[in-house]
């Protein structure tokens, strides 16, 4: 198929084609005269040229030169105009300082144009590299945040992950997240990342502070070029400092900030937007955590009330939960367990018999030993109790203790028949405290034992109970 001829206007044709046309116009008349003279010399050996013919020839030559000159001048002026337009664009893209450097080093417009395009190309390549890096950074941040959300056990771990991730992603040296206190007047440090920041958790900064006060008022991220050193926290920060508010429904929950810069490049708009968007998501996570804490606190209080109601059904076990809670705390402190373990034991002691809500009053209040069928029903209360608290995320650490507080070291316990070290230490502590209280209180089928007698009976159960725990309980009970 033949190609169609495309006509292009002279105005829109390329500079090279225009140069060719004008050069042809400049050359055609002189070349024609020379060719004419050459042909006469060759044919006659003489040049026959009148004065009028010479004048006419000279006029055509001059006109051709003038036309070529003005045409070439027009082309050169166009190049100069392009260079001027380019200089203005360069100032907008590269800044006045860089533009002046290019024009000072080069006086030739073509050289300026070439170097300008080289500089712009270099900037575009750098922007592409920065964009790729920003995409990788954003992907890394979102991946870590997503992982933190799915594996988050508490909000503190999540906030520490946020601060660490965003500090590294923005190539900063230090990061800090501050939240408003209950009174709403001061900001307190909640999470930090970087050197020399571990001792700043107790620092408070007023919402009216010249840096954070401005951020809270404007509700927008900002780059702080000068960091004042009048406070214990800010004195260890370095400029520049990028700060963003934690916004939720136009309410300020706190601020997040990173400071110092490992690279020489300043914080740019993309990084400001990254921190701002991450701050918005963090504010939502903080609010959701508060709502979950309130809901779970209400649920825990409801279950605790339910456990007390179950306890009240049996007149012989009233006060049992509080007493067992007191005993497990004594044992835990005697073993120098952590505060977290002590809290877990205390909560488990208060809820360990919650599963008895699934046991009938006839069995609970029976005046005498239970038969095999009734004992099987009674043993179900461990599994029922675990099932009640398992849906509550904050109480899942109690599940193993509540389920196994009737296990024995020799495997004779229930519901799983665990042996030795298979029984968790906290479950063993609760088992010792539970048995001790059962022995030292009246039952429908017997009167209570003295504390000394109860300890002796428990020491005789050396294959079933952890004797280290019995010894600690003995000392704390005064026996």
Explain how this protein is built.
The chain has 479 residues and is an alpha+beta fold. It is 59% helix and 8% strand. The chain is rod-shaped, with a radius of gyration of 44 Å. The chain starts with 14 loop residues before the first helix and ends with a helix. The model has no long low-confidence stretch (mean pLDDT 76).
| Topology, number of strands | 6
Q: At the fourth CATH level, what is the homologous superfamily of the largest domain?
A: Hypothetical protein af1432
Binned, the helix content reads 55-70%
**Whole-angstrom Rg:** 44 Å
CATH class descriptor of the largest domain: Mainly Alpha
- Structural class, from secondary structure content? alpha+beta
Strand order in the sheet with the most strands: 3-2-1-6-5-4
How much strand? 5-15%
CATH topology of the largest domain: Hypothetical protein af1432
* Domains (count): 3
Q: Return residue spans where pLDDT drops below 50 for at least 5 consecutive residues.
A: none
Q: What is the helix/strand order? A: HHHHHEEEHEEEHHHHHHHHHH
In terms of quaternary structure, the protein is single chain
Named at the architecture level, the CATH assignment of the largest domain is Orthogonal Bundle
Number of helices: 16
Distance between the termini: 111 Å
Overall morphology: rod-shaped
